[in-house]
Amino acid sequence: MRKAWIAVAMLLTLVSTHALAQEKPSAKIKAVRFGKLWDAKGKVWTNAIVVVEDGKIRAVTTDASAIPAGAETFDLSKYTGLPGLIDVHTHMTFYTDETPGVPLLKQMANPVPAVEVFLARKGALRTLEAGVTTVRDLGADQYMDIAMRDLINRGEMIGPRMFVCGYGLYITATPFHKEGTPPAGGIADGVPEVLRAVRQQIAAGADVIKMYGSTGTDDDVTGFETYTLEEMKAAVEMAHQFGKKIAIHSYGPDGARDAVRAGADSVEHATDMDEATIQEMARRGTFYVPTIDHNRYYIDNGDKIGYAPGFKERLQAFIPRNLETARKAFKAGVKIAMGSDAIYTMFGENTRELGWFVKAGMTPEQALRTATSNAAELLGKEKELGAVAPGYLADLVAVEGNPLADIDVTLNNVKWVMKDGTVVVDHRQGVPAAH
Ligand SMILES: [Zn+2]
Question: Which residues 6+ apart lie within 8 Å of 216 measured at CB?
Answer without folding.
Answer: 222, 223, 249, 250, 251, 252, 269
